[in-house]
Amino acid sequence: MHSEYKYWEPYVGPFDPCKPIRVKSYNTPPQLYMNFQPPGLQQFTPKQALMHGTLWPQLYSPYPDPNKGVNKHG
Which Pfam family is an annotated match for this chain, by its short name (predicted)? Predict the structure, then answer.
């Protein structure tokens, strides 16, 4: 199973002038993990598709990161 959100801990220098961001994240869209679009994929209703920005639930990706602010590293 893949995660659409990747996390890393950037280097924080001792003389950085700004408050450090200890864990950063970036999004990898779901279509990167699907080699081809198989026939018969489940579909949202037209109203749901407009609200999600895609017809197929398998290609939906929430934005921004729903885990923002959650400590992913201990």
Answer: CotJA
